[in-house]
Amino acid sequence: MRNFGLALTLSLPCGCAIQQRPSDVVVEYAGRRERAVSIEDALRRAKESGAERVEILLAPGVHTVRRGLVWQGEGPALVLRSEHASRPATLSGALEVATPAWRPAREAVRAQLPEHARAHVRTLALDPDELSAWQGGLGGPAHSGHAVEVRAARSRVHVGSSELTLARWPDEGFAPLGVLVDGGSTPRNAEDDIPLAQRKVEPPRGARFVPEDRERARRWALSTGAWAHGYWNWDWSDELLPIESVSADGEVKLALPHRYGVAARGRFAVLNVLAELDRPGECVIDEEQGLIHAWIDAAQRSDPVAITLLDEPLLRIETTSEAAVQDVSFSSTRSAAIEAHDAAGLRVERCSFALIGTRAIDVEGGRAEIAHCQLDRIGGMGVRLVGGDRPSLAPAGHVVRDSRFTRCGDLQRTYHPAIDLDGVGSAALNNEISDLPHIAIRYMGNEHRIVGNLVHHVVLETGDAGAICTGRDWTGHGNVIEGNFVHSIPGSEERFQNAVYIDDMSSGVTVRGNLFADCNWGLLVGGGRDVRVESNAFVRCGKAISYDARGVGWMAPHIADPATSTLHRRLAAMPIDREPWKSRYPLLGSYLTDRFGRPVGGVVRGNRLVSTPLGRIDDRECVAVLDNVEVACGNCDLGSLVGSARAGCVEVGGVRVGPVGPRPR
C-alpha cells in the first residue's frame, strides 16, 4: 500500500479546535490593523474600509464555519491568508464534540445488529439546539453518481483521528447483482439525443433483483435509510440509489431507476444498513433522528468526535476585484471548499483541502490560478475550471499548476476527476494525480494545455475510461496533451482502460511528446478526425494505441440524424464558417461532406515503442501511420523513469519528457 502522505496532516479534524477570539482574526489595510470578532466581521470591515487592498489574517487552529463565508460585489482586492504560513489556519465545516455521550443502542437497534456486534455498538445523539446553528446538519447518504448534481454529500464522522466508514456489504468492493427480476426504467433512453427509433419514454421504475446471498438480503428488510451503490449497467457509470424495500424472500427493490437501466452484469454494495454493522470503525447514520450508531471500542469512547455538517461552500467569491487565498487549510465539509463566479483575478496558493464533500475548488468565469496546493479525500472533483468564450475563442486563462491530488472522487466515483477544464484556453501544468477510481483530467472545449503532469494509479475501479479524456465533440480543436508522464494504469483487453481517451469522435486533439509506461493501453481514439499522436514513448503497455472507425460502425446510427446527434448539435452551435473559427480550424467545414464518419486526417507518427505493440488502427486510408519504431531502453524500470522525469528529464528513444509533477515553489 502506498503512503498517501496528505492524510497524516489533513484528516485530523479533532483535538485542535480553538474558539474564535478577537485575537484570532485580524484585518489590515492602509497601514491600519484591526481585530475582528469573526471572519464574517472581518469580511464586513474589509468591504466597508474604502481601501484598495485588504488583508484578513487568520490565527493558527481551526476556525469553525457554521454558515458559508461570502465575498461578493465590488470592493477592495482581498487577501485571505494564515497569519503564520508554517502554522496554517483551518476553515472547517464540522461540529466538534469534545466529550461525546455514547450510549448503549436501543433494543430496536440492537435487534437488527449482527449478534457479535451488539455489545460494541453505541449511539450518539446530536443536540438539536447545536444543529440549529448550522446551515446544513447531519446528512445520511444522498442520491449521487454519474450525471447527478449534488449540492452536499453525506456527513463524515471522525472519532479521534480515525474516520468511521458506513456499514456496508461487501466490506470491500462490490458483489455480483445476482438474479435480475426487472431492470427498471431507463431515463437515458428518453433524452432527445437518442435516435427516434430507440427513444423510449416510460414512468420511473426502480429495478428489482435477488442477490446471490439471499439469506443475507433478508436481514436488510428491517433497515430504514438503506442505500445501494453500484455500477448497475456500464463499467463507467456509478449511482447511489435508495432501497425502497426488501421482501421476505430477499428481493431488493430500488426506489429510483438507474440512468442506464440495471443490467444483469451490474455490481453493487449496500450501505448504511444496521444488519451490516459488523466490525470496528463502521457506522450507520440516521439522518431523520439525528443519531449515529457506531462500533466504537471502549478505549475510543472518550475521544472527541467531529461530524461534517455544513452543506454550502466554506467560501464563496463573487467579485469583480482581485482575490487571493494563501496558506489556508480547508477541511471537513459536506459541500464545496471554494466556489468562485466571475472573479476577475483569483489566486489560491499553498492551500490544502481534505475531507471535502463535493468539489474542492469550483470556478466559473473570471480568471483563476491554483498553485502549489494539496488535495486529498475530495468527495467529487478536485478543481473545476470553466471559462472563456467559445464563439469568439477568447481564452479564460485559468491555470492549475504544481499541485498534488490524491483520492478525488472518493464519494462521487465517476466523472468527478481531479481536474476538469471546460470552455477555452485553460491549462493543467505540472500536477501530480494519483489514486482515483476514474478519470484524472477531463477537458471539453478548445485550446486547453495539459502539460508536464505526472499521473498514475487512476482508473482503478472503472473500465472504458482514460486517465486524461474528452468525448463526443467534433469542434474540440486546439487542445494539446504534451510532455506528461502517465504510468501504472491497470486494466484488461475487455475493459480497455487507457492513459489518454479521445472518445466518441472527438477531434482536433494533439497528443505529443508524452511518456506512457505500464499502462493497459496508451491511447484510445474513438474515431475522431484530425487527431495527431506524435513522438510519444510507450513502455511495457498492452498496446500503444487503438484508433477505431466507430463513425461508420456501431456509432453510425447516432450521427445519422442531425436533429438528435450530439455531435451535429455541438457542431451547429459553433460559428465554424466565421472568424476566428474559419481561419483557426478550417478543416471543420468539411466534416459533413468529406468521407463522413471516417477518421480523416488522423496521424500516428514518430512514436517509440519499448516492449509494446503498436496496436490497432482500423482505417489506414484515413489515418497516416508513419515512422513508429521499436526501440531498446537501457534503464526503463519504472522507478528510474519516475525519478529521472521528476528530477528534470527522461529520454526514451529520443523522446524527452520532464520535468513532470509539481515544481519547487
Main beta-sheet strand count, sense and barrel state: 15 strands, mixed
State the end-to-end distance.
Answer: 28 Å
The geometry reads as globular
Category by helix and strand content:
mainly beta
Strand content: 35-45%
Q: How many H/I helices? A: 8
Low-confidence stretches: 1-22
Number of strands: 60
- What's the mean pLDDT score? 94
Helix content bin: under 10%
Sheet with the most strands: spatial strand order? 2-1-3-6-27-30-33-36-39-42-45-48-51-54-57
Return Rg in Å: 26 Å
Structure description:
It contains eight helices and 60 strands. The strands form seven sheets. A 15-stranded mixed sheet has the order 2-1-3-6-27-30-33-36-39-42-45-48-51-54-57. Strands 4-7-28-31-34-37-40-43-46-49-52-55-58 form a 13-stranded parallel sheet, covered by helices on one side. Among the domains are: 7-95, no CATH class; 96-167 and 277-308, no CATH class; 175-275; 466-476 and 489-632 and 640-654, no CATH class. Helices cover 7% and strands 37% of the residues. It has 665 residues and is mainly beta. It is globular, with a radius of gyration of 26 Å. Residues 1-22 have low confidence and may be disordered. The two termini are 28 Å apart. A hairpin with a 4-residue loop joins strand 23 and strand 24 (291-295).
